[in-house]
């Protein structure tokens, strides 16, 4: 159970008279007192894999996973938004149906995780659920959807996912789809922002009380959502173009628009969005071949998955990954805090979806962020906002607007 610390520990963390060990101990104590959430946990992709048990301890070096209960406990992670993700496929009826089935299986996997471990996890659907669940010593399970593509052109499906707990939705992923433009489609923009159906998605999400997520969206789509949405928009896992000018990141001007509308940006730890990394064509070629051989991992046997991971380890040994550093990550974080402020900033590191930087490769390392922010002069109140209160405010605003339509 979380124990509320009354006094701000920032001064202790940065005081010259404090030894590093003493400061780190106080930072850890404060971190453990907070409701700590990450807004983009891609771990449901692992829940559908035969042999993966989230209750058991894993390591990134062994199976490339980044989230499990033992590591959540070590890192003080109370939970967050668990992602229903489907890759972008053809914008056709057949594509919609296939992705819908994948999305439903991911949603069911989240529910099965909770049902199988009722003493460890609890489904959260209301803003007040987070604190109550954390106080019970359980892990918070909000549900989000990255890429609304599985909804096809039938927005009534959003009602179905809402009933399954969905409280956050992002219209697009790597490519444009029926809802609008992606920031990374190699063919460029198709709509100039939201499509007509995308505008209907915004309206429908508002009516249900679902937060709209602009991560992966083209800047024009994000601007459209900020303008059209009746409640603030989130960037659940994004960075800043000021530090690294990548299409997945946002510039200060757009970030200020997000903040002025009440929105929040949660900082991504995906290395290739943090800085320019040296390219290894042989590594890319080897991984490309591995992915072509992979097929649907949910339909593979445990032995086949083990063989796949062994091939991946071999590639990493022959062609080591080059990652951004923790300092690269904090450079984004601190600039975003300077522009947006602590009431509009959070953490969405993209765990189990490609996130992770040197010395912070899984959720066990999350206290490093708290320790660093305390050293930079941020307070207990700031940390409480960053780790949970900001996204819960958005959830409350989304809920309040939806309820106002029924009055």
Structure commentary:
- Keywords: Signal.
- This protein is an alpha/beta fold and 407 residues long.
- It folds into 2 domains: 322 residues, TIM Barrel (Alpha-Beta Barrel); 41 residues.
- The protein is built from 17 helices and 9 strands.
- The strands form 2 sheets. Strands 1, 2, 3, 4, 5 and 6 form a 6-stranded parallel sheet that branches. Strands 7-8-9 form a 3-stranded parallel sheet, sandwiched between helices.
- β7, α11 and β8 form a beta-alpha-beta unit.
- The radius of gyration is 20 Å and the shape is globular.
- The two termini are 37 Å apart.
- The N terminus is likely disordered.
CATH class of the largest domain: Alpha Beta
- CATH topology name of the largest domain, in short, is TIM Barrel
Tell me the series of helices and strands, N- to C-terminal: HHEHHHEHEHEHEHEHEHEHHHHEHH
Estimate the global geometry from the Cα principal axes: globular
* The CATH superfamily title of the largest domain: Metal-dependent hydrolases
Number of helices: 17
Radius of gyration equals: 20 Å
The residue ranges in which pLDDT falls below 50 over 5 or more consecutive positions are 1-20
Q: What can be said about the biggest beta sheet?
A: 6 strands, parallel
Q: Strand pairing plus helix content: what structural class?
A: alpha/beta
| Count of domains | 2
Number of separate strands: 9
Helix content: 40-55%
The proportion of strand residues reads: 5-15%
Mean pLDDT: 92
What is the CATH architecture annotation of the largest domain?
Alpha-Beta Barrel
How far apart, in Å, are the first and last alpha carbons? Answer: 37 Å
